[in-house]
Write a structure and sequence with these properties.
By secondary structure, the chain is an all-alpha fold. The protein is built from 8 helices and no strands.
Length: 185
């Protein structure tokens, strides 16, 4: 549990001004509310009823609480923005890697790296699944055929189609076989 570097006496004083139940209703840490109250010169403890009315905007919150709500909302917005940027950057890197894997597969070049091999194996698995569903050789795209070649699967030879014991295609077996064949693992 984070205590923001406060001593036990400081935490008790904070909770005397702003009980934990009030902080939970406000959605703001106890120490932040208590610090804002001290800075504004408020020495009366807050109640849950006050917090609910301020949160629902049924009564006008004091200026220090409005400022605290604003700071909290801005901090939350910045955090969400950073998370969105991280997600966007990760997706962008994945797209670049997928493009590289596709180009390498189509050119018959070697696929290196765990992420690239995972993408290639996923493409091969999907293509193999299409074959198992009854797709004809002409129904597969050039990328599907290249991924199957990379995984050591001949679409014309059912003996190379890796199947689970129950007869259902198992991606983990396909991936393990393809990557294991390529890397000697």
């Amino acid at each position: 549990m984070a205590t923001s570097g406060r001593t036990l006496a400081q935490r008790r004083a904070d909770r005397a001004l702003c009980p934990i139940s009030v902080a939970q209703v406000l959605g703001i840490p106890v120490h932040a509310v208590a610090d804002a109250m001290r800075w504004a010169g408020v020495d009366e403890p807050l109640t849950v009823a006050q917090a609910r009315s301020w949160r629902a905007m049924t009564s006008e919150p004091p200026g220090w609480m409005v400022e605290l709500f604003t700071e909290t909302a801005a901090r939350r917005s910045r955090r969400e923005h950073r998370e969105q940027l991280r997600t966007f950057e990760a997706e962008y890197v994945t797209l670049l890697l997928a493009d590289e894997v596709e180009r390498r597969l189509l050119a018959g070049r070697r696929i290196r790296g765990d992420g690239a091999e995972r993408l290639a194996a996923d493409l091969a698995f999907r293509a193999c699944r299409e074959l198992l569903r009854g797709a004809e050789l002409g129904d597969l795209l050039a990328l599907d055929l290249a991924a199957l070649r990379w995984a050591g699967i001949d679409p014309g030879d059912r003996g190379t189609w890796r199947l689970a014991p129950d007869g259902v295609s198992a991606g983990t077996h396909l991936i393990a076989g393809a990557v294991g064949d390529r890397t000697g693992r």
